Amino acid sequence: MIPLFKVHTPDNIGKTIQEVFDSGFLTEGRYSDQFEKRFSEYIGNENVCLLNSCTSALTLACHLCEVSPGDEVITTAMTCMATNEPFYNAGAKLVFADIDPETGNIDPDDVRRKVTDKTKAIVVVHWAGQPVDLGVINDIAARNNIKVIEDAAHALGAVYDDKRIGNHSDFVCFSFQAIKHLTTADGGAIVCKKKEDAERIRKIRWYGLDRKYSERTGKSRWVQDIPESGFKMHMNNLNAAIGLEQMKSVDFIINSHVNNGKFYDEKIDNHQVQKLKRLNNCSSSYWIYSVLVNDKEGFQEFLKERGIASDVVHVRNDKYTVFKDFYDSNLKGLEEFSNKLVNIPVGWWLSEEQRDHIVNSVNEY
Q1: Mean pLDDT over residues 301-312, rounded?
Q2: Residues in contact with 328: Cβ distance below 8 Å, sequence separation at least 6, in sequence order
Q3: What phi and psi, each to the nearest 5 degrees, are found at residue 147?
């Protein structure tokens, strides 16, 4: 079976992990500092804060946006539940905007319609690695004095207006969970537009303490004051060391996804299988490859018989009981997309022979 996902494993990862254990410093430290710097260089934004998950990144973005009970957050239901639970847990009203059924991304026109004086933030997801129209979204936010939070879990390496994702909005949240482009086993990062937001997060990710206090002052870190209560959301040295090794292959990983995705864009030709629309001013990172078919179960069974794994990966959040109060029956684009969605393998692990087999199978359906 050609897998839908596969974990990339660096050749010398065992040796690297052993080195971390031998150092005696397992929590945040030298390795996490190096990974944070290396990742910021890749993104092109120095305001990177490593965390223990993308969910923590979204939680801290929510915290810095000062989302409180009664506030509204405009978001998408076509995503992992981890996108929306941090805002729900903060007591916000989730206002689900519709999506473009040809891309899976949030519909800016519906976002504009749903802004009220209670809106605190707009949350967007770059479905499958295809960037949302960030120019329009950020314009809406600026006109209404609200923040934009990007869930970029699918979009490492994606480009919008000649800049990598991580440079456009107030907060951009990345995932290093097991099956993402770049994995640290588990982990994440938040990238901020403002330097002062990043400096604040570097404190509150670890109880509100400045871990660099001793380096700056020569005094014990324990004599410093804690002006703001924090969390325990930092990334440890073990995860960071894995990330450093993965960064050596990040171009290979993402370029493989992109090359395979573009190959599918060109070669898949079946009127029963709809490909996603691509925007001119951006480039997808093709974390997954989504297609839309009328008979999802029949299509998936057809692929299975040919040794090809497939899955929906995420389901619309507004159907979960926990979010039942926010269900909106008028999300026609979401309904259409969700009913037809199937994802097929597109990753770095595919051989040319497997890639050809997938295209031929989809075209034969």
Answers
A1: 98
A2: 96, 318
A3: -95, 155
Between CA 203 and CA 188 the distance in angstroms is: 16
> How far is residue 185 from each of residues 84, 221, 255, measured CA to CA in Å?
22, 29, 21
Q: Which amino acid is at 31?
A: Y
| Contact in structure between 43 and 167 (CB atoms under 8 Å) | yes
Helices (H), 92-192: 108-114, 134-144
| Structure-token pair, residue 136 | 């329009």
What is the edge-to-edge ordering of all strands in the sheet holding 159-160?
163-164, 159-160, 282-283
Count how many residues are written for the chain: 365
Its pTM stands at 0.96
How wide is the angle at C-alpha 45 spanned by C-alphas 44 and 46, nearest 5°? Answer: 125
CB count within 10 Å of CB 269 equals 10
3-state secondary structure 272-330: CCEECCCCCCEECCCCCEEEECCCHHHHHHHHHHCCECCECCCCEHHHCHHHHHHCCCC
Exposed e or buried b for every residue in 217-240, given b needs 16+ CB within 10 A? eeeeeeebeeeeebbebbbbbbbb
Q: Cα(147)–Cα(64) distance, rounded to whole angstroms?
A: 10
Cβ atoms 354, 119 nearer than 8 A: no
Q: What is the pLDDT of residues 107-139, one digit of tens each?
A: 999 999 999 999 999 999 999 999 999 999 999
Which pLDDT band holds residue 159 (cuts at 50, 70, 90)? Answer: very high
pLDDT in tens, 59-102: 999 999 999 999 999 999 999 999 999 999 999 999 999 999 99
pLDDT band for position 221 (cuts 50, 70, 90) = confident
